[in-house]
Specification:
10 strands; binds NADP nicotinamide-adenine-dinucleotide phosphate; disordered N terminus
Length: 203
Amino acid sequence: MTRLGSGGWCSPWEAGNKNLKRRRANHLVGVVKAQTTAVAAPGLKQATFQGKKVLRKGVVVITGASSGLGLAAAKALAEGGKWHVIMACRDFLKAEKAAQSVGLAKENYTIMHLDLASLDSVRQFVGSFWQSGRPLDALVCNAATYRPTARTPTFTADGYEMSVGVNHLAHFLLANLLLEDLKKSDYPSRRLIILGSITGIHT
Ligand SMILES: NC(=O)c1ccc[n+]([C@@H]2O[C@H](COP(=O)([O-])OP(=O)(O)OC[C@H]3O[C@@H](n4cnc5c(N)ncnc54)[C@H](OP(=O)(O)O)[C@@H]3O)[C@@H](O)[C@H]2O)c1
């Protein structure tokens, strides 16, 4: 982290984010809920937000939705009928096969490329998401790499140890870049969810 003259802190990658920092007019509608529990079904029965009815589907981005908990969450949310799932995955083909393997209906999901081992890929993902014109109602930072028995470390494109770079730094950047979009959401169940493992403290 780099200290800014103003007294704030600036992460090393923020210098590279200037192009992405252009923002649409922000109308903050309240505080984004953050939770650190495992994926839980949001309050899908809630049909109103601050007295307003929301008639559209929510849009949720799930990182690492090609297997495990991410895929299970994608399936549960898509099948509930109230969410369109953006599967943010590094391997498009694997993600497509995974979606088909659990019977996701085409209209309920979109696969977008995101390799968390590269901060540039995070920025590109966010740029593509903004270009899609979709709102963002929930972000699930789920993807992770865990190699406790590896004899030698591996590194991200930016030179960080892989699990630190993928599990933490890339998600930190992703959440930061998308936070204003989440704040603008008028969807009842908007939230930022970060998954973690107690074993992560040993990596
Ligand atoms: N399973 C458990 O018992 C457990 C317990 C506690 C916490 N958690 C947490 O729950 C979350 C999911 O765990 P899981 O067991 O479901 O994991 P998993 O099945 O191993 O899935 C991990 C996902 O992360 C993706 N991923 C890995 N590196 C990536 C990268 N560089 N860029 C983009 N995506 C990447 C994988 O993509 P590929 O398919 O391309 O490899 C995969 O989709 C993790 O945050 C984990 O710490 C899990």
